[in-house]
Design brief:
- The chain is mainly beta.
- Helices cover 5% and strands 33% of the residues.
- It is built from one helix and six strands; from the N terminus they run βαβββββ.
- Strands 4-5-1-2-3-6 form a six-stranded antiparallel beta sheet, with no helix packed on it.
């Protein structure tokens, strides 16, 4: 397990039917599939979200991590938290 530092947020990307496949598809809505996920862990300076929150984030600020389905962003890249749907 990794521990986030400073204002970093580790996010597990939400599974969609398209990103479960192992093929490469380039479309205009590529960013749509990668801008929502569940918070895995947060750094000590993060105050707006907690583990388990369903968040929307700015897709071009993400960095890859140890897992292809987990990205890391700064707290300032978070755009919103989804309410229970």
């Amino acid at each position: 397990m990794v521990k986030a530092v400073l204002d970093r947020v580790f996010i597990r990307l939400k599974e969609t039917p398209d990103n479960q496949k192992s093929s490469l598809v380039l479309t205009d809505d590529f960013a749509q599939d990668r801008c929502r996920g569940i918070v895995e862990c947060t750094g000590p300076e993060v105050t707006s979200v907690k583990k388990g929150d369903d968040v929307l984030f700015h897709v071009f600020d993400e960095l890859p991590t140890y897992d292809k389905n987990v990205v890391v962003v700064r707290e300032s890249s978070l755009l919103g938290i989804f309410e229970n749907e």
